[in-house]
Amino acid sequence: MLLSITRTHDELSIVCPEKSVPAAITAEGDPKAERGWSGLRVAGVLDFSLTGVIAQLTETLAAVGITVFTLATYDTDYILIRHESLERAARALRLEGHTVEGL
Fold first, then answer.
1. 40 and 81 together in one domain
2. What φ, ψ does residue 63 adopt, rounded to 5°?
3. pLDDT of residue 44 exceeding 70
4. Is the whole model's pTM more than 0.85, yes or no?
5. Which of 28, 45, 77, 86 has its CA 20 to 30 A from that of 51?
């Protein structure tokens, strides 16, 4: 399960499974909820000295018109993709030689 809580000066952002969000919270109003995202996890622990991992993946997805939302943790990164684009994203990533599992 992916759960991310980020606090900035301007907002509090919570990324969590849709089932955890009350139905009364919608994309309109305050607070807001945007539903319909699936997450892909970059496999393995990413050393901080690695560069370009997310750039390479998101460039591949941008080239086929797929919107992404990225999150990073200490160990790895996550790319969130709209449900309706998930299969197309997996296909594009595989064509570039990436392994996509667990869809």
1. yes
2. -60, -25
3. no
4. no
5. 86
